[in-house]
Amino acid sequence: MTDIFIGNQTYFPEITRKIPFEGIESDSPLAFKFYDEDKVIAGKTMKEHLRFSACYWHTFCGKGSDPFGPGTQNYPWDAVNDPMTAAKHKLDAAFEFFSKLGVPYYCFHDRDLAPEGTSPIDSENRLMELADMARERQNATGVRLLWGTANLFSHPRYMNGAATNPDFNVLAHAGSQVKSALDATIALDGENYVFWGGREGYTSLLNTRTDIEIENMARFLQAARDYGRACGFTGTFLIEPKPMEPMKHQYDFDAQTVIGFLRHHGLENDFKLNIEANHATLASHTFSHELQMSVDAGLLGSIDANRGDPQNGWDTDQFPTDIYDTTQAMMVLLSAGGFQSGGLNFDAKLRRESTDLEDMFVAHIGGMDAFARGLEVADYLLNKTDLKVRKTLRYSSFSHGKGADFQMGKLSLRQLFSHAESMGELKQTSGKQEYLENLINQALVRA
Prior knowledge:
Layout: E1 40-41, E2 44-45, H1 46-50, E3 52-55, H2 56-61, H3 83-101, E4 105-109, H4 110-113, H5 120-141, E5 144-149, H6 168-187, E6 192-195, E7 201-202, H7 210-230, E8 236-239, E9 249-250, H8 255-264, E10 271-276, H9 277-282, H10 287-296, E11 300-304, H11 323-335, E12 344-346, H12 357-384, H13 387-394, H14 401-407, H15 413-423, H16 433-446
Parallel strand pairs: 3-4, 3-12, 4-5, 5-6, 6-8, 8-10, 10-11, 11-12
Antiparallel strand pairs: 1-2, 7-9
Helix pairs in contact: 3-5, 5-6, 6-7, 10-11, 11-12, 12-16
C-alpha cells in the first residue's frame, strides 16, 4: 500500500490517516485491535494470510433500502445526476476508502463500476472507460483487483435466469456481459473471475426443463473459460454456491452440489468455489463445513466474508463479528495451506439504521479484527493444543493393518465380514466433542 489516495475531492475528510493498529487496549472505534498486518503467524504476515478485500456493491452502491422502504444512506458521491459522472465520483471515493482502510484488494460487478448503456457495445465502452480509470487508481494506491464479475440478476431481462434462461436471446445478452466483464477483469489484472448464479434456478417444474437449463449453464461456463483463456486470463474462475433466494431452487445449492457439477462437466481444472458464510447458513450448513467440503475436493478458491441472522431466513449480509465462527473457518484454511489466489472479501453491508460515513470504516474494522483474531486462535489450536493429535488418533485404525488395506481398496465385502466376525464386540471410543469445544473457548482467552 502506498500513499492514501485522494482524487479531486475528499469523501471521508474525518479519516485523515490510514486506519492504525493500536491493540486491545485501544478504545478508538477507528483502530484495529487484532489486525496487525505485519504480525507473522505460521510463517506469513496477517496481511498475506487474510488477503482482505472490500466489495464495491454493498459498500458504494447500496443505500440501505429493503423490501419495505427506500434507502436511508445518502453518500456524497451519489449527489450527481449524470450516471457516468456519478460513477467516476464513486470510483474516487472507493479508492480513498480502500487506501484509508488498508485493504489490499477490492471486488466489483460490472454494473457497480459503470452504468449500463443503450446496447452491449455502449455498455462495454462505459465499463472499459471506468476500468481505465480504476487501473490508474490501482497504480496510485497498490490496491489490486481480487475478482470481477457480471451482474446477471438485477435487470428485468434476467427474471428467468441468465445462462439458464429459457430464451436463447437472453442467454446471448448474458454472454455479452460476461465477455465485457472478463475484458475489464483482465485489463485490471484481476486474480479471479466469479460467477454468482443469482437467478440460475427455477420456481416451478410445471414450466421448466431442468435438463436443458443445467446443460446450458455448463456450456455457458465452458464458453466463458475458453474466451478468458484465449485472451490471456490465467487466474481462477470461481462459482459461488447459494441454495435459494431469489429463486426457489438454485442449481448451485451448496459446495457439494457445485463440486459434483464441475466434475460432471469437466470444469474442475479451471473452476473453484467462492464460499459465502451467509449462503452456507441458508443451505443449513455451517461456514466451516462448506469450506471443508471445498478443501477436501481441492476446490476452495476464495471466501465472501459475512454472516447471517439465525432468526431470519434471508441473505442479510451482516459484517462478521463472531470470533468462534471465524476461528473455525481459519482452522480449515490454515490446515489446507491458506489461499492460493483467493482472499477474504467482505460481501457485507451496513444495517439500514447505520447512516454515518464513519460506519463504513467501523464495520470493516470489526470484520477484519474478527478474522485476525480467528487466525491467531486457529494457529494456537493447531499448534499448541492436542486438537490435531486427537483427530489423527481418532482415525488411526486406517493407518495400519486391515484398515490400511481397506483404504488402499484391497478388501472385499466378504473380507470385511470375516474381520468383523473375528473381533467380537467392540469397545466404545469417545469423540470428546465437548472437550474440543472447551479447547476453543480456552484458546479465545489464551492465544
